[in-house]
Design brief:
about 550 residues, globular, six-stranded antiparallel beta sheet, Immunoglobulin-like, single chain, 3 domains, mainly beta, Methylamine Dehydrogenase, Chain H, 2 helices, six-stranded mixed beta sheet
């Protein structure tokens, strides 16, 4: 049996302090082994272990474990087996999971109800204003390590979401950020005013990391010009901008609404006496990499705008409920919507707030709406709609904010924004899961409703995660294994190179989540005695890569 400790990255690092209870363990490969046992112990304050450990058997080099607890200390080790024979046992590693008032059940809790398990999506949900993620039982699984001594204070992020790289992106009133899941700042938007012409870019509403590793965010640019309807009045006019940054903070693309949208649209919901023109008020966007187009939601004139990213030109505008249409008595297609997502088959998912500025409108509720895009001279039209009624809100729901996103199981996750209500609904309009949130008001000693701007789903804290194992080499035959340890299906690029970097061959492989594939590669005779390097990377993000070296055959 091997007794020496093999040195590589152990995850979590020994004595790490975590802020999440869904943990990916990774351990060293032991030559000759075909399986591993990972044993976990919880340690109490008296430094005593649990009598019975949690034992998990794996054939890969990583293991995701859910259901650990905040405020606890854990010990773990792994064993390597060749058949039934243990050939290696690691030393004991330790880690702790910290706690925070953000996930303290005495200060914040989720009230969950659901139908039969399996009807709703098996995932975690990020609640942006609170800065946490919960599982579908309502239990916190992650929190942002917010540095505040005031338990009544919340991070108040917007668009808190997990990227395909397993990092966290969000924005607040100051800037746009990318963090590791342990809260380390990885990237921050420059906010240098190169597009706005001012001291800052006025970032707002939406921010995303794209699959190519760049960052796309919305900003505002202010101009001073005559009122369209009354040139004697000089106005401050707010135009939407889009800015795309690379990893160094360099601007690689930008778009200014003023250059592509006519003034009649910008001024369409304002009056001749107005000196402050807030414009169309973009509050969401989505990017289609295949078409290289961007679709935007604009609240103030209730419109959806699609642009060609290459030229910046407007492809279409849907909705546009302005003063002229109001006077003519047209009914809006949707009204003051928030959030939108591009669906397959040229459809769009929007959260229609359906909220009028008319105080006498009466009871109304938001709607989740799917639209077919305008095309071939035909207008856009609704293909599916659901009115978000709830007995908890007998006077209707008129709040701002809100979001709807498609889920892998075909359902939709909806966040009611200004109302305390998040739910999942099927295409047949059955609510299969819902949750309400409450925060303890320490000043008034009572529980109060807690709302979120958006709630965003992720399959786990580790959507795309893989390991690579060397099995054996027999002269020209290289046997290795790729393990998709993440919670999403993935596709990989495999490269075979000599030690001096000469590319021998490439392959592609698609793997379902939590699955493995043994691979056999046969070298040509001229390479059969050489040292070979195998590199594997994710097809959609080549920066996520691993390599192994097959030494020269003895």
């Amino acid at each position: 049996m091997f007794h020496q400790q093999l040195f590589a990255e152990i995850r979590p690092a020994d004595n790490a302090k975590l802020n999440y209870t869904q943990v990916m363990f990774e351990y060293d490969e032991v030559p000759g082994s075909d399986s591993y046992l990972i044993s976990f112990f919880q340690i109490d304050r008296r430094n005593k272990k649990d009598a019975e450990p949690l034992v998990i058997k794996k054939t890969s080099l990583a293991c995701m474990v859910s259901g650990l607890q905040f405020g606890k200390i854990y010990s773990w080790h792994y064993e390597a087996y060749q058949g039934d024979k243990m050939i290696f046992k690691s030393k004991e590693f330790h880690f702790s999971i910290a706690s925070s008032y953000l996930i303290d059940p005495k200060l914040f809790h989720s009230s969950v109800s659901s139908s039969i398990e399996g009807k709703f999506n098996d995932d975690i949900v990020f609640l942006d204003y609170r800065g946490i993620a919960i599982d579908r039982k309502g239990q916190p699984v992650w929190y942002y390590p917010y540095e505040s001594t005031n338990p009544d204070k919340d991070p108040l992020f917007r668009n808190l979401r997990l990227t395909n790289d397993g990092t966290i992106t969000c924005l607040d009133d100051s800037s746009c950020y990318e963090y590791s899941i342990d809260g380390k700042l990885l990237w921050k938007a420059p906010d240098d005013g190169k597009i706005s012409g001012e001291a800052k870019e006025h970032y707002h509403h939406d921010f995303k990391k794209l699959d190519d590793g760049t960052y796309l965010t919305a900003g505002w640019k202010y101009e001073y010009e005559p009122n369209l309807y009354n040139p004697a009045i000089r106005c401050q006019v707010r135009y939407n901008t889009l800015i795309q940054y690379d990893a160094t903070g360099k601007i690689v693309w930008s778009w200014n609404e003023k250059d592509h949208v006519d003034r009649e649209t910008i001024f369409g919901v304002y009056q001749p006496s107005d000196s402050l023109i807030a414009g169309t008020h973009m509050n969401a966007f989505d990017y289609d990499a295949k078409e290289n187009t961007i679709v935007m939601s604009c609240r103030h004139n209730s419109s959806i705008v699609k642009i060609d990213k290459k030229t910046g030109n407007v492809i279409y505008q849907i909705g546009v409920y302005d003063n002229r249409k109001k006077l003519q008595g047209f009914a809006p297609l949707f009204l003051h919507q928030h959030g939108m997502a591009i669906l397959p088959d040229h459809q769009l998912l929007i959260y229609d707030n359906n909220s009028s500025d008319d105080a006498n409108r009466g009871i109304s509720y938001p709607r989740i709406t799917i639209l077919k895009e305008a095309a071939n001279g035909l207008p856009a039209y609704k293909t599916w709609e659901y009115e978000c009624r709830s007995d908890r809100f007998p006077k209707g729901i008129l709040g701002k904010g809100g979001y709807a996103m498609p889920l892998p199981n075909g359902n939709i996750l909806a966040c009611m924004g200004g109302a305390n209500f998040v739910f999942e609904i099927t295409p047949q309009k059955e609510i299969v899961w819902q949750s309400f949130f409450e925060k303890y008001d320490s000043a008034n000693h009572k529980w109060t409703d807690f709302v979120n701007y958006r709630a965003v789903s992720a399959s786990s804290l580790y959507p795309y995660y893989f390991t690579l194992q060397q099995v054996e080499r027999k002269n020209s035959k290289l046997l290795f294994k790729i393990n998709n340890d993440g919670s999403e299906d993935d596709r990989y690029q495999i490269e075979f190179k000599t030690k001096d970097g000469k590319l021998i061959s490439t392959q592609e492989l698609e793997l379902k989540k939590h699955s493995s594939q043994r691979m056999l590669f046969r070298l040509k005779s001229k390479y059969s005695k050489k040292e070979i390097i195998i590199s594997v990377s994710r097809k959609s993000n080549r920066s996520q890569a691993r390599s192994i070296i097959f030494n020269k055959p003895v």
